[in-house]
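Methods — Computational structure assignment.
A single polypeptide chain was analysed. Its primary sequence is given first, followed by the predicted tertiary structure written as structure tokens.
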Amino acid sequence: MKNKWNSTALGMLTLVGGLSLSSFAYADEVTLTSSDGTVNMTGEFVDFRDNAYVIATALGELRVSASRVQCEGAACPDLGGGDADIKIGGSDTVGLGLMPLLLEGYAGSIGAAATLINTGNGDEVVAEFVGDEGFGDQLALISVDSTGSSDAFSQLLSQDIEIGMASRRIRPAEARELRSAGAGSMVNPAQEHIVAIDSLVMITNPANPIDTLTTAQVRQIYSGEIGNWSAVGGPNLPITVVDRGEGSGTRSVFEDRIFGELEVVDAPNKVIAESNSDVSQIVNETEGAIGYVGYAFQRGANPLSLINECGIAMEPDAFSARTEEYALQRRLYLYTREDTASEGTRNFVNYAASEDADSLIGKAGFIGFAVDRREQSPDSERARALLNTNADPYEAGFMRDMLEQMVNYDRLSTTFRFRTGSSQLDERGLIDKERLIDYLATQPAGTEVVMVGFTDDVGEFDGNLSLSQSRAAQVADELREAGGNRISNVTISSLGYGEIAPSGCNTDNEGRRINRRVEVWIKSPA
């Protein structure tokens, strides 16, 4: 077990601060609250012992696990994680929604137990790792401070944390600044760890009858052009726009997907929420409110379906998120520095990005990278689009050919994309390739796999057709080489259909990026 932790940075510890104190002399009033609203009680602080708060109330003394609540009030004990062996900071989406389960799961994977304690310092949590499933020695103390994605990179730069949590990819300027400070290439797969996918969900108050908006209507609401629900078919009710603050990774993704290359204009008197939890709380308490949250933070609010500018309806289901064909979705990252990452840090982030963490990611309400399989029905919306009678006769021939091929295969959620202007797979593709090989290795002998290439509509049709075919052939070659004898049970071929069957709008960079892809089709032996 000891080889899982760096012997210098993560040696045997004597817990400090509130974690080792057995009693307190205070008798002041404190309030214990949980982020999901299930616990909210006030009483006189009595003690903190065995990782639980003890308070005196009209019902007598109550004992509440510190892993469930935050303590507010002058008498709350200081449980801070200042002396933690590993400090994690950044996105509240990752920190509040995903990190607690990842810490507990990793502890179990090394035969340890993790006890999580809310320190009362904002959204900071401290996890104590104890070996032998909780009966052995203390292995480590890990603190997680959940604020915003931008903080992840500033704190990595100042070396205040070892792991940065982000709900957006690092920006070029941030990466350059860290590289100049000796942190290495922050987009190297050894330092940039994609751990999950999160679909952003537009939510309204549960009493609001509206269940669908176009992305143009969302843009108009958030820019203040639409200020009453009656303008979109709802009740005569003023709209309260709930937004996230500057620097929030969630806000960055929302503005990129909704405003695109247009100027971002703020609605007047909009409400700024500090976290996903705050957004859902405000929306649930305000009849005319609208907001956006990570998938795991809907908490009883009314989720909205979206229709993009091309008329394609978008549902935030797991398959669409894994293929990246749902516009309001983003990758969740953990970042580490090359020069300071300890063995324990590397082991934890490798676990978080592995298949072992998939079930925990799903339990937390996020989407992992497991391979899904879906039938390609002749009655699907995609199949109907391929029968478009208004298509150019030359292109229509390829559309009919695709339809004839498609209905004989299922589609896997694994979808490959390339670095901008490059023939190299992007950082997500490297993860997906290994996952796909693992999946194909379990398939029966005689399974047929086809790599199917597509492009955006920029350029001539025949040029795009040729590019899609060459990209699909390239991925097929890479898969055969990487899989070797492990996937000798399957045959792999390739096709390309150019710009037909778009998954996104070709009117902006993000839509064109989504359309530049290589899909994986599969057919089991008869």
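Note: Residues 280 and 498 are 41 Å apart (CA to CA).
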